[in-house]
Every structure is written in C-alpha cells, then in structure tokens.
Specification:
Layout: E1 3-7, E2 11-13, E3 18-25, E4 33-39, E5 46-51, E6 58-60, E7 68-73, E8 78-83, E9 92-99, E10 116-117, E11 121-126
Parallel strand pairs: 2-11
Antiparallel strand pairs: 1-3, 3-8, 4-5, 4-9, 5-6, 7-8, 9-10, 9-11
C-alpha cells in the first residue's frame, strides 16, 4: 500500500512562515515527479510547486514564486514545502503528490496526472 501523509499545516499570521512535510510509505520519491498542491472551497485544485528529476526541472505557481521552496530529501524519503511571507490568499488545504511514471514537473499544470496523493494539511493565514 502506498501512502503519503502531509503535515505541518497550522495557523500563522500574514508574513509568517510554515514548513510542510510529506512522508511516504510503500513508495520511494527518488527522482520521480513530486509536487505540492492546494485547494480552497469552490475552487479547483491547483499546482503550487512541482519538481521533476532535478532542481532545473521545477515549477512554481507565479503567486508563490520567490516565497515558497520545494525540496526532496532522498535519505528520509520526504518532501518539504517551505512557505515564507504567507498571505491570506495562501490559505488552503495543501496536498503532496507524486507520479511514479514521470520525471518532469508537469504535474503542476496537469494536476490529475499525479498518481499518489496525501490527505492534505490545512494552512490558515490571518491578516
């Protein structure tokens, strides 16, 4: 059984920071496509930050570029999303995901091409 679990969400004031983590079991992130996505009520899930086989194959949603950083720790088999200078617009449920069949970052564009999904972690940003 493949299971991804996102954690690290919480309540933070605007301008603050959070670090989300994603742990996997039954699956190795390795150099496969990985990503962080978010969704708010009434809106479609959107890609926030995705990475392919290297840091040269990375995508950031324009509104988070320069503020968020996606990373992969192969030793721990975990993903991280460092979120800085948070705004109320960043509030959402954040999901981690992976595609074992791809080494590209396209999952952030083609959201449902991602195969494995975590349950999500809530990020609330107060003004």
């Amino acid at each position: 059984e493949v299971q991804l679990q996102a954690s690290g969400g919480g309540v933070v004031q605007a301008g603050g920071s959070l670090r989300l983590s994603c742990a996997a079991s039954g699956f190795t992130f390795d150099d496969r496509a990985i990503g962080w996505f978010r969704q708010t009520p009434g809106k479609e899930r959107e890609g926030v930050a995705c990475m392919g086989s290297s840091n040269d194959n990375t995508y950031y949603e324009p509104s988070v570029k320069g503020r968020f950083t996606i990373s992969r720790d192969k030793t721990k088999n975990t993903l991280t999303l460092q979120m800085n200078n948070l705004t109320p617009e960043d509030a959402a449920v954040y999901y981690c995901a992976a595609d074992p069949f791809s080494s590209a970052h396209y999952g952030c564009i083609d959201v449902w091409s991602m195969v494995y999904w975590g349950q999500g972690t809530q990020v609330t940003v107060s003004s």
